Amino acid sequence: MGSGIVKNLLNSGHSVIVWNRSPEKCDDFVKAGAEQGLTPSDVVQMADITFSCVADPQAAKDLIFGNCGVLSETTTSKGYVEMTGIDPETSQDIAEAIVNKGGRYLEAQIQGSKTQAEEGKLVILAAGDRSLFEDCQSCFIAMGVNSFYMGEVGNASKMNLVMQLMNGIILAGLTEGMALADRAGLKQKDLLEIISLTSLNCPMILNKGQAILDGTFPAHLPLTHLQKDLNLALEL
User: Fold this and answer.
1) How far is 77 from 68, CA to CA, in rounded Å?
2) The CA-based dihedral angle spanning residues 88, 86, 112, 33, taken in that order and rounded to the nearest 10 degrees
3) CA dihedral defined by 199, 203, 209, 215, rounded to 10 degrees?
4) Where are the beta strands (DSSP E) in the chain?
5) Long-range contacts: 140-148, Cβ < 8 Å, 24+?
6) What is the pLDDT of residue 64?
7) pLDDT at 219
8) pLDDT of residue 46 exceeding 80
9) Looking at residues 207-234, what average pLDDT do you find?
10) Which CATH number fits domain 159-235: 1.10.260.40, 2.70.98.10, 1.10.1040.10, 3.40.50.10860?
11) Under a CB-based contact definition with an 8 Å cutoff, are residues 41 and 70 in contact?
């Protein structure tokens, strides 16, 4: 997901500094014009606004509070945007730490797949510092088709988890339906064609259904990330 975001920021003319726990993953971005920081604190020092997109809440906290982390370089001139799928409590903890250092904080949760990230077609759910939301508009335009400001910190995380819960339920319903059709002696191809002509017609169902038919399962969102989000949704 982060790779597509960085690519579109570079392509839209933004100056970008990158960091990754696996430094070699930054090589292509450096070739494309990005600078590379050696630590998260390097990125914060070099940039006005820092975007974080990592695997889970613990990884997000490690970037903030860990050795050579974000807080060590956070000042009144810095903005921090958390794009990792996290729970509201983690987002509030990060916000408090950033604000106590004088910085501005925005959670900007992502709705979309790896393909949509590559194509700049994400939907961004934001909450927190309104002025930082406005300052990020050129970046959000590069990343996605729309961005929504949802008020106080935690609201965007909650909305993202609601959306992820719905995504999980839809995918579970599709796979159960495909399995039941097969077990009942029906053609799964017929099921998908019928779905395409009804109110159930949507890209997610049709694309995933076709992948099941083809026996190919490209990972637009790793299952471990969806499981993480479903577990967080159950804690709301």
Assistant:
1) 19
2) 120
3) 170
4) 17-18, 35-36, 49-52, 79-82, 104-111, 122-128, 144-149
5) 140/108, 141/12, 142/8, 142/9, 142/11, 142/12, 142/14, 143/5, 143/8, 143/9, 143/117, 144/112, 144/116, 144/120, 145/120, 145/121, 147/108, 147/123, 148/123, 148/124
6) 97
7) 76
8) yes
9) 90
10) 1.10.1040.10
11) yes
Comma-separated ranges of CATH 1.10.1040.10 domains in the chain? 159-235
Stated pTM of the model: 0.93
Evaluate whether 86 touches 232 at the Cβ level (below 8 Å).
Answer: yes
What the block records as the tokens of 93 is 């903890």
Instruction: List all residues 6 or more positions away from 156 whose beta carbon is below 8 Å from its beta carbon.
Output: 91, 107, 108, 109, 125, 126, 127, 128, 148, 150
